[in-house]
Specification:
The chain is an alpha/beta fold and 328 residues long. The protein has 2 domains: 3-121 and 307-327, Nucleotidyltransferase, domain 5, CATH 3.30.420; 131-302, Nucleotidyltransferase, domain 5. Helices cover 40% and strands 21% of the residues. It has 10 helices and 12 strands. It has helices spanning 41-58, 98-106, 115-126, 187-190, 192-204, 212-218, 224-232, 236-260, 275-288, 308-327, and strands at 3-11, 15-21, 27-34, 64-73, 76-78, 83-86, 110-114, 135-140, 144-150, 153-154, 264-268, 299-302. The strands form 3 sheets. It has a 5-stranded mixed beta sheet. It has a 5-stranded mixed beta sheet with strand order 10-9-8-11-12, with helices on both faces. The longest helix is centred in the C-terminal third of the chain and has 25 residues, at 236-260. It is globular, with a radius of gyration of 20 Å. The relative contact order is 0.15. Bound molecules: zinc ion. Residues 168, 178, 180, 182, 185, 187 line the site of zinc ion (ZN).
Length: 328
Amino acid sequence: MEQELFIGIDIGGTNTRIALIDDSGRILLVRKVPTEIGLGTPQVSRRLAAECRSLMDAAAGFFGRVVAVGLGAAGRIDAARGMVVFSPNLPSMRDYPLAAELEKNLAIPVVLENDANVYGIGESWVGSGKDIENWIGLTLGTGVGGCLILGKRIWQGDGAGFAGEIGHMTIHPEGPACACGSKGCLETFSSGRALKEGVAAAIAAGTLREGPLYESWKNGSLTPETVYRAATEGNALAQALFDRMGRALGIALASLFNVLGIRHAIIGGGVSASWDRFIGPLRESLARHSGMFDPKEVSVVRSALGDDAALLGAGELARRAARESRRQ
Ligand SMILES: [Zn+2]
C-alpha cells in the first residue's frame, strides 16, 4: 500500500532545509538550499515550490505520496492566514501569503508556524519532549527562541502572533540593548549574538588586545564556535561570556518554573552545542533563584533531535494538517 508522506521545511535567514518525512517521524530525504531572501519573496516562493515538487516526485521511490507541507520560519507568524507578519531575518517576507501561495501551486495543504514552535512540536513528537506533558522549550541560535508546551500542545496565547517569547524576558533592566527595542532581554546574554557582542565590548573597552578571539574579531571570522573553542582552551573572557549565558538562562528558567509550576525544560539550537560551558552556571543560577521549587526536582536537558527538530516539527505540522483536511 502507498504510504502517506510529508514535507517539512525550515526556512532560515541563510539556508533553507527541506525534508521528506514519514508517518513515524523518520527523515527519508533532506536537501539544503540557500534561502537567498535578497532575490525577493516571490522568487523564494517559486524555488520552494520547485523543491517541493521534486520531493513529491521522489516520494514514489519510497512507495509514498506527499499529502501536506509544513513550514517553519523565524518571526511573528499569522498561522491562520499562512503569513510571515514580521521577521528580522526575512524582512522581505513581510505580509506575504507564503503558505497560501504554495498551497495553490502544489494543490495539497500547506501550513506555516514560528520556528521555535516548530522546534517544540518536533521535540514533542519524536524528541526529548516525547513523554513529557508540560515543558519549556528554548533554542539558542543567533537569537533566543522559546515555546511553551502545555498538555502536549503549543501554547498560542490569545492569537497575537507570538507566545512563549522567552528570549525577550527581561533579565536585567539596565542590560544591553535588544533587537526587540527593549533592554537586558535573555537574548542579550544567552544568544550567539551576545557571545560575539561580548567579545566586541571587551575590545572596545581595551581589555582584549590580542589572542585568537581578538584576531578572529579583527578579520571578521568570529563565531559562537570560536568563543566556545577559546573557552575550552581556558580563555577567561570566553568562559565569562558562557557563565553569563548560563546565569541568565537559570534566572529565566527559575522564573518560568515558579510561574507555571512545571518541571521540565529542553534546550536546542546551534549554540546549545556549547552545553558543557554553560550548563554548570545555569544549574547554579537555577538553584539560587529557585524560590518555590526544589532544584533537584526540575530537569533541564538538551534537545535530542539537534538540527532536525525544526524539520520534524514542520513534518508533524503537515501530518496534522493532512488529518484536519480529511476531516473536513
Ligand atoms: Zn528583546
